[in-house]
Structures are given as C-alpha cells and as structure tokens.
Amino acid sequence: MEGNLSVVLHAAGDLRLENRPIPEPGPNDVLLRMHSVGICGSDVHYWQHGRIGDYVLKKPMVLGHEAAGQVVKVGSEVRHLKPGDRVAIEPGVPRDMDEFFKNGRYNLSPTIFFCATPPDDGNLCRFYTHNANFCYKLPDNVTFEEGALIEPLSVGIHACRRAGVTLGSTMFICGAGPIGLVCLLVAKAMGASQVVMSGKDG
What we know:
Layout: E1 4-11, E2 14-20, E3 29-38, H1 41-49, E4 51-52, E5 55-56, E6 61-62, E7 66-74, E8 86-89, E9 92-93, H2 99-102, E10 113-114, E11 127-131, E12 135-137, H3 144-148, H4 150-163, E13 170-174, H5 178-189, E14 194-198
Parallel strand pairs: 13-14
Antiparallel strand pairs: 1-2, 1-6, 3-7, 3-11, 4-5, 7-8, 8-12, 9-10
Helix pairs in contact: 4-5
C-alpha cells in the first residue's frame, strides 16, 4: 500500500502536503481509498482565514469533505459494505444520540463530527476511515466524480425544499458559485419556471 499523502492546513495560508499514517478502521468504520474530493468554499475559507465563525483551526487539519472513494477494509461490525465497494460520504456523523439525532436532524447537533471542521480531519488524502453507516454505495452508472458532488447537491436540494420551490415557482439565487449552480439545477428539476441568479465577475 502506498503512503497516505494528505492536504494538511497548519494555519491560515499554511497548506502542506504530508504523508500521514494509514488509519485502521474501528469496528463500525471502513477504510477508504479516496478517489474524488471536491474543494468547498469552506476549505478555501479555512485556508485563507484559519477559521469560520467559532470554528477556529488550533492544530493541523486535513481539508476536504465532498468525497467519494473505494472501500479497502471494513471494521468487524460492518455488514452492508465490502472491499471494492464504491461509496459517497456523508461528512457529518453524530457523536451523541441527543434530541437532534432523535428528531432526524443530527446535522444540527453541536457535538457532530464533520469532516474538515476543527478539530475534525477531512478526507483530502489517499486513505481515510469513516463511519460505515454514513457511506453510501454508488450505483455502477455513477462515477466517483459524481459521487463527490452528492454532498453539494444535497445542499441545493435542502435549500430548494426550505424555499418551497414547486411547479411554476419564480426564484432568485444570490451567488453563481458551485452551490448556487446546484440550487439552479435542483430548482429547475423541481419545476421552477423562472430563476434569476446574481453573481460577480472574476
């Protein structure tokens, strides 16, 4: 097995390529050979500023959370995945069975593990372990690159659902970056008849 080359942020503006140890999966985890990892605006923000709001980089952190890879090894309790399976990653994994978890809104839990959000490492590396219950098998007709886009696509779906987009909706999307564009795609798929988008040059 080759080394685990990783993109590690040490401080604002201090991004390094490092070889890190290949992790071992825990009982409920899988070891993944990463294939495709998107660069999110949050990755860029951490790189430029070393923080987002209250999430402050205090120790070196691997970037990346929009990801897909191939299972290399499974933990002793994992039954639904096997080596060779191609998966997309849900980057947020609940640590506690709190009220958010029980209500199906674990993403709002203040204790959630989230890839590339201090202090949690992300998956812009060759090998990465993740909770198997938050790895979703990709159909044969979905590429790794498309798998890595599932997380940003889910942001667009959530935004359009929250906005109540339906057949004949008219909407305005502020920002023509990747998330704005997936919001546009989702809005059109949900039946929006007119979508206006703002953006800036450069």
